[in-house]
## 1
Amino acid sequence: MASSTWFITGTSTGFGRELTEQLLRRGDTVAATLRTPARLDDLAAEHGDRLWIRTLDVTDAAAVRRVVDEAFADLGRVDVVISNAGFGVFGAAEEMTDEQIHRQIATNLLGSVQLARAVTPHFRAQGGGRLLQVSSMGGHVAYPGLSLYHLTKWGIEGFFEAYAQEVERFGIRTTLIEPGMAGTGFYGAGEQRRAPALAVYEGTELTPWLRGTGVSEGDMPGDLPKMAEAMIRIAESDDPPRRQLLGSDAYTLVRDTLTERLRALDDQRDLALSTDRDGLRREPA
Ligand SMILES: NC(=O)c1ccc[n+]([C@@H]2O[C@H](COP(=O)([O-])OP(=O)(O)OC[C@H]3O[C@@H](n4cnc5c(N)ncnc54)[C@H](OP(=O)(O)O)[C@@H]3O)[C@@H](O)[C@H]2O)c1
């Protein structure tokens, strides 16, 4: 296959960095964006000609548009955009600061929405493109301690459900990538990632989940290189799926959750149907 050009957000660590390394190794061109460009100095030294780097904080919508415009102008064409930048803030909803809530939504949800919007006219002009949105198994299931993170991932899933239908006619294909747990910077500590603890939530069975210590890295099934490789394969497939889970934890947990939700849905049937106006009933398929 001819080499391709990729645009990726959040390339300093984790999935973004792994994707960038794999793509450069196989001879592709990567427009890598990140908040601290010096973190790619080693890759720039090795692959300078095929690595286009720009500073980008995805919470700055004007900067997202400017950097996307620049990438398409400089590189001529971008085949695949991977919207990857994101993080999770751990804590009970009540414990989170207003600033943490704002940053969580501004980064994972609004940053991803603005990236998709910025890319759309360019993809349309070049006759199509692939957009991978890194969501999470946490876009289907939810755990205590990550309420705001789930808000962003469930939110971006809803956005892409609608957006995909709007843009497929232009040859734009989207996939929500829904990884399970993998050892990246995601579980690292840091002021932005941990809400200030309230005593009332200490010493309960939920406490490890609220503090982000419920699972150790050794128990996370996700293999970072294999997951990145799968993302690349999906982006290049002839008929990419709208959603793709990655990891046995993701598959099992989402399957169990959806099965239970379908069962609960069926239990609601009679009451749901009973509230129609007479003569306007839509029968389930
Ligand atoms: N690891 C998992 O178990 C897991 C599971 C499901 C989904 N995910 C998703 O995978 C994606 C990547 O996370 P990761 O696991 O690879 O974690 P990671 O190693 O912490 O990487 C996160 C990346 O996002 C960047 N980022 C954070 N806020 C940003 C902002 N405002 N603007 C631009 N970049 C920003 C970080 O940059 P800095 O270095 O500047 O902070 C970093 O490059 C996220 O969307 C996450 O929700 C992860």
## 2
Amino acid sequence: MKFKNIAFVFLAMGLFSCTNDSSDNEEDIDIISPEGPGESATNCTDVAKYVFNENGGLLRVEFEDAVFDSDWKLKNDDAATSGEGYMVWEGDQSLGTPGMGLATYALQVTVPGTYRFVWKSAVKTGDSGSDHNDTWLRFNDASDFFAQKGESIVYPADSGKTPNPEGATKDGWFKIYRSGSNLDFKWQSSTFDNNAHDIFVTFSAAGTYTMEISARSSGHAIDEFVLFTDAISLADATSDTVSKSTITCKN
Ligand SMILES: [Ca+2]
């Protein structure tokens, strides 16, 4: 699958058709939406009712497209981000207790299966890549939520499943961190201290699922996230040519 070629086709189509016509092309769309890269297409005017629609085994969502506690600050001062910018936690740290500064995302999944989760985040406080670098994540209504590195699979604490990772985990939440000395926005999501495991969630049936995030480290900034099946590579899922998932409205 060459995303760039598909994106070019739709960009070219966009030059000759008004947006009202674009829905006619939906059956031909695999991953790229007709609105073109960088757009979150929606007629939904209430962010609390946003539903993000998986397409072709991919969800690509602007992190700021949710309802946030006032200590999550929306900023648009970094050219490396998209949409309206990014959210950064400027409240108290919550290193041991998930659930503070909670935000949720409704994800409409049509292709059941296991999806890898990765977000694009940055460190906006201090000069260490190992501090102010994480936020809590939970999928409480999915069939499975786990982290994997090779043969090693771990589950969140209090999920009823073992083993659990080293480092912070509680009440079904993983601490999701980025690492490395570069503090700028990059696509990376891991859990398990000093033994980075990738993050996965399994949706065993089509339906609408809830993704939850909550504050952990102050100064951790998040721009976007992706969920993608093993039919898609990380490079393709996070390519700049991929459009954001179509947003519909909850009834
Ligand atoms: Ca963003």
